[in-house]
Amino acid sequence: MALNHSNPKHIFSEKCINFLTRKTKSDPFDDTPFDANWSVPEYELDGRMSDASVYCCYKYRGCTSVMQLSDLGSHTKVCPNQPPAELDSKDVTGTSWYQTEFGLTNKMKSQFNHTIEVRNWEKKLRERADDGSVEKLCSSATQQIQTYRELLLKSVLYYEDGESPLDALHKAAVDYALAIKLKPKDPDLHFHLGVLLEEHYCAVVIHGVTKKSEEEGTDTLSSAEISGRNEEISAICRLHGIKGQVTLQQQLKALDMEYRQLKEQGQSAKAAYAQTLYNWKAQQAAKDGKVKAAHTDDQSYVDWALLKYMDALSLQPQNWQYNFHVGRLLLFQKKNNDALKYLQTALAQKPTEPSIRFYTGLVVLDRDDGLGPQTRYAVQYLQQGLEQLLTVLQSSDQNLPGQEASHLQALNTFSLLNIQLLKGIFRLGTFLFNPPAGLPEKTMPPEQVLHFAADLAARGLCQYPYRGAVSQDLEWLLLEAHFTLLDLLAKHASGMEEWVDKRCQSLSSLIKNSSIPVCEELRDMQRMVCQLRVEISPCSSNALYMLGLAQMADYDNETSADTAKQMIEDARFSFQASINMENKPIFGPPPIELSKQKWWHDWKSDENQKAHQKSQQQQQQQQSGAKGTAPPPPASARGGTARGRATGTRGSAATPQSGASKPTVSPRGIGASGKGNEVSRGARGRAAATSPSKTTASGKIAQTRGSEKSAGKDAKPTSDYTTDVAQGSRPSQIRPLMNRASFAYRLAMARALSRIDESSTEAQNYYNEVIKMAPEVHDAYIELANLLLKTNPLGAVEIYCKFPVKPIKEQTFDDAFITGEIVRLLMKFGKYDDSRLGPNLIAYGRVMGLAAIDTYINTLDQKLKTELLMTVYAGIHDKPMEDAELQAFFTFKHWI
Question: Which end of the chain has a smaller Cβ tally under 10 Å, C or N?
Fold first, then answer.
């Protein structure tokens, strides 16, 4: 779908835009607020995408067919080059490790010494009397599991005691525990109890199943009320000079300061509400502590599940399933060496199982001893697992989490909710840039694997029912996959700048709208992406604006005063440049404000040095040719630095420095880590991608783009990315030639100036410009009014009153904040006869309820403002003053 009134047209997948705008209903690219009809179907684009010619996604396996994108799905199901339905066991039995470990005897070696015992937690499961046979208990457990699945499909925030899916799981676990008591030597009973214990962890962490606690009772706030309270707390923090990413301690401190200030001013009603907010936030902190403690308890369920899997394995060592799940959970606990033994045993017992192959390959790739003789087998096993996942997605209904398969999540290894699986795919993609020798010819190119990783992570996020730790892992995976793909694209030769620009724009917007808590790694990623885009398009207002946002985020999180001062100055320069470039061509010399920034100066110096070195190399080549010596072969354009393209003007791009045999990025470049040619992994320790050689990264992007349904690019079928661009499929066809004016640039500029000086007249002027350009944007009124509160509080009322008032029935909680502030300030300064007080009291009371204005009503009653009170009550109840019920109430209150 396209975003209405966007220019140039901003087009998104419907599921993706709904996910990106789940918090703020505004354009992810330029922050324009959505109106009622913000989305427009793109039928013409859908048609062009369906008609686009693409290669088969099994081209890497030898398929040369070219078809329309709309026919790709049906073709893959009958493609003769598709992966075989049954894997060849010789891929395992023919390996050296298999022959060494298992080839000398048909009997698998015992891997461990384990003692079965009844542990304390298992004794607690046997809470009821043994009142049946094993068969009866197993049948009861099966029914409880079915109940669990049905309850899990319900969209419920909190479950009453006894009605939670966890209760059904607990009852099933009790049944199996009692069955084990009756038949302790049955390995299947131990295994099923382990599955239920692991499923408890999945229900809490993946699906977010929560019981309603006693202290919550029926006073659980709605999401809108929670959002409203958090907005009020943020405003109070800004009021007391606490800005940026505010910690919980800072929020409590600001609320305490607000409470004391209101008490000193005699505003007991507002002070009581500030105390309410303080107590609510403090209780929320206590609940967060309980959640962390509960999460620790949930982790113990994984430990218990592992023990039951090992109990089952000790009773039946030849069972591949038991070995596999023991190895899988050991890998989950990062005990890689132990996990490898069990996974290899399981693979030897069931060599054709793709899930065992995938996890075994993942352990081998992540082992601490680096590349080994098994690595090429590991790559093959990981690819076979990816192919199996794609086959599952094509052949079954895996559109909704929780409905993927008939079995439990703990057993569903090929699921979009299995973060371990998706991380393994990303790990495969990054590893393939420097693959070991001897890989089969039918190995996917790394770009295609990374595209699959990004696409699968996006699908998982859009379908994910619960926003928790796993959803953040999915977001990290999505960002890292796109960041790595951007790094690959940036290393191509000149001529790819506009593709890089589009990817930078999309990735920076994705980071900006991420729900991941702000951290140094995320800010570094945002800054590098934005700087790369500015280097390519230094005259783009939007690129400069996004860079300024990244610089201001760095300022908000910087502890050093001197460094912070430089950061906010750079942000101010970026915002000023974005405003100055409005209504001007995107092409041309960079604005003067860029030359004032240190990072830009360093980059230009680096580029000039590269140009000088290249000139010297060319002179040496010419001299060698004049002497009759054959000149060295030209350096490949592939694998060059990502910083070798954008010069002072948009039209002329610098050629990358020769010497492409060293495919490292500049120290400040995308993914620079200071460790050879590794892409930065940051503090989270995720898999690093090494820079591709000129043959590896020589242009699979267009092929991959055409072979995936999610790509949606209209391109001729070609295996070379640069050829695709040269043939005219460039984004410049839809890029504007002129920069558009935007309120967002001025709003950001005002924020930067107010951070430098809260009394800045210039900041107030920019806020007023925003109000004129976008009168529906709440932030401009709220932030400008906050600047005036200390010096001219009634002037803040004037600002709030400029907000275009909607009909009362259409007003939102954001509107209510503004009307509430008008009422608060007028009441605070005793302006009881102000004509603006009545209408805003009515609007505020209609949205927030009579309880929110109860203290104001009491104050007006004491001041004998009976006419105003009767008007307010009539307006809130939407009844005429002459209404019989209202007249009776007014008489009761002695207002008439």
Answer: C
Residue 45 — very low, low, confident or very high, per pLDDT cuts 50/70/90?
confident
Mean pLDDT of the chain: 78
Query: Rounded distance, CA 20 to CA 7, Å?
Result: 19
Q: Are 752 and 548 in contact (CB under 8 A)?
A: yes
pLDDT per residue as tens digits for the range 865-874: 999 999 999 9
CA distance 480 to 454: 8
Residue 761: which H helix or E strand, with range? helix 761-773
Residue 429 located in a structural domain = no
Query: Could you say which of 293, 322, 349 is where a domain stops?
Result: 293
Dihedral, 779, 780, 786, 788 alpha carbons, nearest 10: -170
Alpha-carbon torsion (75, 80, 81, 84), positive or negative: positive
Distance CA 422, CA 449 (A): 11
- Which among 293, 317, 333 is the end of a domain? 293
CA distances (Å), 311 to each of 25, 113, 192, 209, 298, in order? Answer: 52, 11, 11, 28, 20
| Domain presence at residue 250 | yes
Q: From the CB of residue 807, how many other CB atoms can be counted at a distance below 10 Å?
A: 7
CA distance 214 to 192: 32
* pLDDT tens sequence across 166-198: 899 999 999 999 999 999 999 999 999 999 999
How many structural domains is the chain composed of?
A: 2
- The predicted model gives 334-360 an average pLDDT of 92
Burial of 462 (0-12, 13-18, 19+ CB in 10 A): middle
- Report the C-alpha gap between 554 and 11 in whole angstroms: 30
Q: Assess contact for 857 and 836: CB atoms under 8 A.
A: no
What does the pLDDT look like over 670-703, one tens digit per residue? 433 333 333 333 334 333 333 333 332 233 333 3
Please tell me the distance from the alpha carbon of residue 896 to that of residue 890, in angstroms, as a whole number.
6
Cis ω for the linkage preceding 8 (within 30 of 0): yes
| Domain span holding position 284 | 224-293
Look at residue 652 in the predicted model and tell me its pLDDT.
33
- What is the DSSP code (8-state) at residue 653? B
CA 156 to CA 160: how far, in whole Å? 10
Q: What CATH number corresponds to the domain at position 804?
A: 1.25.40.10
pLDDT-wise least confident of 326-335, 436-445, 555-564, 568-577: 436-445
What token pair was written down for 800?
């709030």
Q: In the chain, pLDDT over 70 holds for what percent of residues?
A: 78
Give dist(CA 535, CA 659) in Å, integer: 22
Strand positions, DSSP E, 654-730: none
Cβ count near 437 (within 10 Å) = 6
| Crossing angle for the helix pair 165-182 and 187-205, to the nearest 10 degrees | 160
Listed range (205-214, 255-264, 424-433, 588-597) with the worst mean pLDDT: 205-214
Tokens representing 833 are 């006869």
Provide, rounded to the nearest whole percent, the portion of the chain with pLDDT above 90.
35
Q: Specify if 668 maps to a domain.
A: no
Residue 615 has pLDDT above 50, yes or no: yes
Collapsing DSSP to helix, strand or coil, 365 comes out as: helix
Is residue 161 situated within a structural domain? no
